[in-house]
């Protein structure tokens, strides 16, 4: 034992043990997230539970646990009695989504084949039975043949109407609103800058004509949307809950419906893929607790890419200067100490700095110089994806500096001396030999920077992230990339849904699935950088022989 201690072998074992424990903890965390989020994508069976007081409850089993002994009488302690948490939906009828049921009160459990789960655009899921399909004044009852098939056909038709309405409102009407706002800002600019009143009046009159044309287009599209809505409102379904309470639901409010108790494994697997596709590519609904997270995915990836564009050049140049050009001395050592200390500064401090410097000072100055006609409404003097990305660049640049400096120290001195001896200048040595050879280390710093930036939330909350962004930072309108816009972020989405949602229990599956998605995005970005790093290492290792 003493010899192992002296040789250091015991410390290698401790290191391996620590690595193993870390891997077990990470794997356990991923499994926990996956198990808690899987119900969001799986078509869970609907159970009809009959209680000893005659009441019936229909819903999905969410959780099952033992009843603590202190909640039981002495005669029932240590008997292993259970209670289950049921998601009963029908929030607009009951006022709540979940209910705990004591196993002692359950008389029977059934799985009715005709029970349906109806996903709606608001009020969450409806659990019950479809009794009638209403088309204007025509009523089709559930006892008619192929009733469910007819309902699905009508639901698909109305879903096409809903997508058409959504496309018109978001694309066509959105473009018109953008054009009108641009014309109004142009009028303000003319009023602010033009001294010739007659010329200003002529230009403003032309712009007002253009606004009138856009308004007429808007009215035409509004009439089209209203006609589609009125047509879709003729289609509805009459439903009843497990106790016979009625509910009429417009098919325009139905996202999808299915009968989970009739679905086999294959159909449930297809349903899962459909839900995953919706989760990745759709927009959120129901206060971000339902639907997809595409705007948050787009905002997260775009912010990380913009951050990388600023972080890597700044970090590499700083490291090159400190290692290759600066005269080593007390001042350089102090700078290195300052860089290392910056890496440990809390992220919220960087957020406050970004708010004060980038938004209020830089953005406010830009507004005063280039957009005075828009004031007091700020253009750049408010939170946006550019300021959030620059704030995170300052947060992560110390990581890149340290990693790049470490990579530069690994380059043999002989490579520099040989190139200089052949007549190369200092810059040629740096550009053609040192930077390419240090690229694997630079990418290591980039990987660490992206991993930290993708998960940061605190500085983003005061520099541009929002709960729900009406438009993406990228669209078809010039200049295409609108870096002044606010954006959504997966990390903030997790915080908002998990801690700010009005219905936290219903939002928990979304929290876990979004967490898993954020981890996957970070892993994907890191794997891409690691593949590039491995190829570069192989290239320069082979060129050394």
List the keywords.
545 residues, alpha+beta, MetI-like fold, six-stranded antiparallel sheet, 13% strand
Please render the helix and strand layout as text.
Layout: H1 2-7, H2 9-37, E1 47-51, E2 56-66, E3 82-87, H3 91-94, E4 98-102, E5 106-110, E6 116-120, E7 126-135, E8 138-141, H4 147-193, H5 197-232, E9 235-240, E10 246-250, E11 254-258, H6 265-281, E12 284-285, E13 290-291, H7 294-325, H8 330-342, H9 347-370, H10 385-409, H11 413-421, H12 426-455, H13 490-499, H14 504-542
Antiparallel strand pairs: 1-2, 1-5, 2-3, 3-4, 6-7, 6-11, 7-8, 7-9, 9-10, 12-13
Helix pairs in contact: 2-14, 4-5, 7-10, 7-12, 9-10, 10-12, 11-12, 12-14, 13-14
Characterise the protein shown here.
With 545 residues, the chain is an alpha+beta fold. It has a domain at 301-542: MetI-like fold, CATH 1.10.3720. Helix content is 59%, strand content 13%. The protein contains 14 helices and 13 strands. It has helices at 2-7, 9-37, 91-94, 147-193, 197-232, 265-281, 294-325, 330-342, 347-370, 385-409, 413-421, 426-455, 490-499, 504-542, and strands at residues 47-51, 56-66, 82-87, 98-102, 106-110, 116-120, 126-135, 138-141, 235-240, 246-250, 254-258, 284-285, 290-291. The strands form three sheets. Strands 6, 7, 8, 9, 10 and 11 form a six-stranded antiparallel β-sheet that branches. Strands 4-3-2-1-5 form a five-stranded antiparallel β-sheet, with no helix packed on it. Strands 12-13 form a two-stranded antiparallel ribbon. Helix 7 (294-325) packs antiparallel against helix 12 and helix 12 runs antiparallel to helix 14. The mean pLDDT is 87.
